[in-house]
Write a structure and sequence with these properties.
- The complex is a heterodimer of chains A (about 525) and B (about 375).
- With about 525 residues, chain A is mostly helical.
- Chain A is about 65% helix and about 0% strand.
- Chain A has 17 helices and no strands.
- In chain A, helix 13 runs parallel beside helix 16.
- Chain B has 13 helices and ten strands.
- In chain B, a hairpin with a 4-residue loop joins strand 2 and strand 3.
- In chain B, helix 3 runs antiparallel to helix 4 and helix 11 packs across helix 13.
- The chains are: A mainly alpha (about 525), B alpha+beta (about 375).
- At the A-B interface, helix 3, helix 10, helix 11, helix 12 and helix 13 of A face helix 2, helix 3, helix 4 and strand 7 of B.
């Protein structure tokens, strides 16, 4: 792919406004991307602080630091904030920054809606976090908020939680519509669908998934609201309702949701591995097809979260086989990354280190996921720390490592400065060791029989819980180093070239570093 | 400066490694895996688990092996000119088909075991298991025996005031007793929120859902004590409602059933006995500790915003009839459930306890409730 660069923007009418209004009124995709990324970083630190509280309580058996009631609030908010506040807005931020530049578009297709979809998010999380100070405390029913614990038996703040989820949903839907419209209509001439960078493909698929399932989540919380305040009995067995219905609806949203959190990571990692292997991606079209198959299959596997609710035998077998089928396209992706590295010319800068450990650790999470799909074995694994280990392996060294890799990879383009490679590597190694010391022992704890969401545990689980807590503190505090590195890079540092990485391909590397406020006001020419 | 903090001297690295590594070295290296359990099914599940585990390990070794080899052999230094190959249909078809076949090899035995687990014919003994916040009720359908099973670990152990016992958080005041070698079927349901009844040694985990009855069965040949837990978040004391099953020989089981029936007869006689305030208070305190303290707290203060205070409550102090009604019927739309499953004596005792404690007697009417009041309440109203 080659491009002709277009490089004029000294026209001061088109530069950023001064002061706070720049950020409040901005319709610029780069500004909005920055806002999303900083917001998600803040949420990552808040959700992380909650994880620290959880691990501190679990450091030893017995109740030491918090009461069970507050512990439940912590696990609930930790999950909600990391998913809806940490991972998802970070990916939306990356999409905002990168999608227009990657397809040679001047901006997102719907810039004002873009502004709105970001600016309602802080309110959603303000409402959610404020519930900590309400009478009865914050939501305490787990991020999966199973009825009737989240309806009849919930604290009064559940209504605020519902409102907050609605706002997050609206933000996600608007963001996704924007991504779809941008990709469908604003590609520069020559950027065919099957020539789009994989990150753009991954986001196109993610956006469709979001549009499909966020309304389902909105439906679930609305039914809860009706049950709580308007006397309906959707989920109340005493009134003729069905508590299991809640789980079906929730996981019909929830399973595609977990792929929403991993597909953009697939895109990011493909770019980084390609760049630092200095070799063309092994199979571009099979990568696209694999993502599409994963997305489609994600709609027919939801009940694997519910193997113990008493489904009929036929349903158990169907959902087991369907779930195992997902391993095929996922395997294709992993094999592709390995084949791309094979006989490449590898260097190990920080983004590559994060990307490689993504492949290894995400695969470990994928393999434990395969184990969880086996129904009879799942009767032993379900709702134990084995599950906690599994989903943290796919979400922390999976989704979050890919976001960190993306930040190191593209930050020279965003702010024109190189990050400090020595500190970046240090951050990587601390995170890598921290993540594994935290989550690997949780496999053992789970197999030995410790259920999740327990504030206290029997003595046989004590040793590995302590190890896990030590790892968690290491991982948690290492992220302050990440914050320091990012701030340091924004403030200054070695100037980055336009190309930044010698093996990097794609339109975003053809513009200046830092990327000018407006890029591709006239479309580039792409072969 | 931050560089000083992260000065990678040998000393700093070894201090760092010491902090991370010492708990790992000290940890129990034998508590790493699932256990076989004690039934044919749990053995089969264990074998299945190990089968998939080793398949996953093999896949991991293969894939990561190629990757690590490439990271070692194909660095920019050793291989300055990258290869240019991409897309190879034969290879791509192979890495699609082969995983597919491996998956089938795993799914077939798994499905077979599942079919066995799903045999839901009636057992020799059928026990209804009901989850409550935060205890289990067991109801032997054939023998008409029914009781609650509560955590018996002392609060002082939980709050680190005394050393923790061997069965910390895994002990109950009353165990489920089943005979060895008999097919026992559990009919699992719940009274309030969703719970989940998990007994790892039997490989049984079934959600207890209000309005639904799930079934699970087991045959345990070896007498002994088996411990399990609640595995679905059910509120504050989710971590404090363990399950303990005692498997005994048939003759011992028959004796146990006989003993439980005698107990029930004695309890019924207590209803007509004359009770003093002191006796009711003494009995009531124990019942309060088991059934009420989780929400309303030892101090009777409750938890602001969720669980109302009983100390100084107008109903508890001055409205005996409403007091009885709440315990019998529960409160619609709130966490307070009906406690009508308690005996008349127990209800009278616990109500009396709350009406006499925390200064309620002095501030309110000070009336006590006797078992007869509860019997009267239960009489059909004309």
């Amino acid at each position: 792919m080659s491009a002709v660069i277009e490089n004029h923007h000294d026209d001061h009418h088109h530069g950023p406004a001064k002061g706070i209004t720049r950020w409040l009124y901005t319709t610029n995709h780069k500004d909005i991307g920055t806002l999303y990324l900083w917001f998600s970083f803040a949420m990552f630190l808040i959700g992380g602080a909650m994880a620290m509280v959880i691990r501190a309580e679990l450091f030893q058996p017995g109740m030491q630091i918090v009461e069970p009631e507050f512990y439940n609030q912590m696990i609930t908010l930790h999950g909600l904030i990391m998913i809806f506040g940490g991972v998802m807005p970070a990916f939306v931020g990356l999409a905002n920054w990168l999608v227009p530049m990657m397809i040679g578009a001047p901006d997102m297709a719907l810039p004002r809606m873009n502004n709105l979809s970001f600016w309602i998010l802080p309110f959603a999380f303000f409402i959610l976090l404020s519930s900590l100070f309400m009478e009865g405390g914050a939501p305490n029913f787990g991020w999966t908020f199973y009825a009737p614990l989240s309806t009849t038996y919930a604290p009064p703040s559940v209504t605020f939680f519902i409102f907050s989820v609605h706002i997050m949903g609206a933000s996600s839907i608007m963001g996704s519509i924007n991504v779809v419209v941008t990709i469908m209509n604003m590609r520069a001439p020559g950027v065919d669908l099957m020539k789009m960078p994989l990150f753009v493909w991954s986001w196109l698929i993610t956006a469709y998934l979001l549009i499909a399932v966020m309304p389902v989540l909105a439906g679930a919380v609305t039914m809860m609201l009706m049950d709580i305040h308007f006397g309906t009995s959707f989920f109340n067995a005493a009134g003729g309702g069905d508590p299991v219905l809640f789980q079906h609806i929730f996981w019909f949203f929830g399973h595609p949701e977990v792929y929403i959190m991993i597909l953009p990571a697939f895109g990011i990692v493909s770019h980084i591995i390609e760049t630092f292997s200095r070799k063309q991606l092994f199979g571009y079209s099979s990568m696209v097809w694999a993502m599409l198959s994963i997305a489609i299959l994600s709609f027919v596997v939801w009940a694997h979260h519910m193997f113990t609710v008493g489904l009929p035998l036929a349903a158990e077998i169907f959902f087991m086989w369907a779930t195992m089928l997902i391993a095929v396209p996922t395997g294709v992706k992993v094999f592709n990354w390995v084949a791309t590295m094979f006989r490449g010319s590898l260097t190990f800068e920080t983004p590559m280190l994060f990307a490689i450990s993504f492949v290894v650790l995400f695969t470990i999470g994928g393999l434990s996921g395969l184990m969880l799909a086996i129904v009879p074995a799942d009767f032993q694994y379900h709702d134990t720390y084995f599950v906690v280990a599994h989903f943290h392996y796919v979400l922390v060294p999976g989704a979050i490592f890919s976001i960190m890799a993306a930040v190191y990879y593209w930050i020279p383009k965003w702010c024109g400065n190189m990050y400090d490679e020595r500190l970046g590597k240090l951050h990587f190694w601390l995170s890598f060791i921290g993540v594994n010391v935290t989550f690997f022992p949780q496999h053992f704890i789970g197999l030995a029989g410790m259920p999740r969401r327990y504030p206290d545990y029997s003595l046989i689980f004590a040793d590995w819980n302590m190890v896990s807590s030590v790892g968690a503190f290491l991982f948690g505090f290492s992220q302050l180093l990440f914050l320091f590195i990012v701030i340091k890079t924004v403030m200054g540092g070695k100037k980055a070239t336009d190309q930044v990485w010698d093996g990097a391909k794609g339109l975003e590397w053809t513009v200046a570093s830092p990327a000018p406020y407006h890029t591709f006001s006239t479309p580039p020419k792409v072969d | 400066m931050i560089y000083k903090l992260f000065n990678l001297s040998k000393k700093n690295i070894s201090i760092f490694l010491f902090f991370v590594a010492s708990p790992i070295i000290k940890a129990d290296w034998f508590a790493l895996n699932m256990t076989r359990g004690s039934t044919d099914i749990s053995n089969e599940v264990f074998e299945l688990h190990m089968l998939i585990f080793w398949i996953c390990v093999a896949i991991g070794v293969l894939v990561f092996g190629v990757m690590f080899y490439s990271m070692w052999a194909h660095t920019k230094k050793k291989n300055p000119v990258p290869a240019t190959f991409h897309e190879n249909h034969k290879l791509e078809i192979a890495w699609t088909i082969i995983p597919f076949l491996i998956l089938i090899a795993m799914a077939v035995p798994a499905s077979k075991t599942l079919v066995k687990i799903y045999d839901d014919e009636a057992g020799d003994i059928n026990i209804q298991v009901t989850g409550y916040q935060w205890k289990w009720q067991y109801n032997y359908l054939e023998d008409d025996v029914s009781f609650f099973s509560n955590l018996s670990t002392d609060l002082d152990e939980i709050y680190n005031l005394v050393p923790k016992g061997e069965n910390y958080l895994q002990e109950v005041d009353e165990m489920v007793v089943i005979p060895a070698g008999k097919k026992v079927r559990f009919l699992i349901t719940a009274n309030d929120v969703i719970h989940s009844w998990w007994l790892p040694a039997f490989a049984i985990k079934q959600d207890a859902i209000p309005g639904f009855v799930n079934t699970a069965w087991t045959v345990v040949d070896k007498p002994g004590i088996y411990r399990g837990k609640c595995t679905e978040l059910c509120g504050k004391n989710h971590g404090f409602m363990p399950i303990v099953v005692k498997v005994v020989e048939q003759s011992e089981y028959d004796d146990w059933v006989y003993g439980k029936k005698q107990e029930a007869i004695k309890l019924a006689e207590l209803t007509t006995k004359e009770w003093t305030t002191g006796e009711l208070m003494e009995r009531g305190e124990g019942i309060y500790q088991v059934n009420c303290v989780a929400c309303h707290q030892t101090s009777g203060e409750g938890i602001t915003g969720i669980f109302p205070a009983l100390a100084g409550s107008d109903i508890v102090m001055n409205n005996k009839d409403r007091n009885i009604e709440i315990l019998m019927e529960g409160v619609q739309g709130a966490a307070m459930n009906s406690f009508s499953y308690l005996s008349e004596v127990e209800l009278a005792a616990v109500i009396t306890y709350t009406r006499q404690s925390w200064g309620n007697a002095e501030k309110g009417d000070g009336e006590i409730v006797i078992p007869k009041d509860i019997v009267d309440y239960k009489e059909p109203k004309i």
